[in-house]
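Protocol step 4 of 6.
Sequence for Helix-turn-helix transcriptional regulator (Amnibacterium flavum) entered exactly as in the expression construct, tag removed. Do not edit the line below.
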Amino acid sequence: MVDTSDALTVALVDDYDVVLMGLARMFDDYRHRVVVAEINANTTTNDHVDIVLYDSFAQPESDHHEIAELVRNPRADKVVVYTWNFQTSLVESARGQGVDGYLSKTLSAGELVEALERIHGGEKVFMDEPRRAPSAPGLDWPGKREGITDRESEILALITQGKSNAEVAKLTYLSPNTVKSYIRSTYRKIGVESRTQAVLWGVDHGFTPDVHRIDHWRGGP
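Step 5 output, structure tokens:
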């Protein structure tokens, strides 16, 4: 039996089940150091946790508000953003709101655990922008099994939420032409020819967010 008496407790916050489960699995070999206290925010809990790990997948348009709410949450000692996006304004906004860490999804499981332990110990850990690299082994996202990349997945998730190309470009800090390129490659991979077909495919394949999850950790139902 694994001794978890000295392990730090972490709540995982995101609106996509597959993203949460993939992230939770990354800690499987580190249960003596990290205990995942909550991944299902539709179940009422009053757990106090050492760290809330906020995964920003497909919800950057509301990150500023949600991060501020998490920082104010009395059940969380520390708040850490876990992301692919290191746009300077986003990092500085998170820092200004009082988050304790800004970590890249390129980190291996061991590196992620080490960073969380440093944050739990009182350090502020803000990574420099990493060179574009594959996400850490073990991470998951909607459409991964169909060959969709992490960035394509996030863009398709935003499209499924009803965002226009211009809105997607603004939210992902990509140029409109880059967004169009990602959309075309995604359409080819999922075998659709129109935005309507892509949205329907997204709804059927887990690209619809469960907004109650983040609402819960912001203090909602």
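Step 6, annotate. The beta strands are 8-13, 34-38, 49-55, 76-83, 101-104, 125-126.
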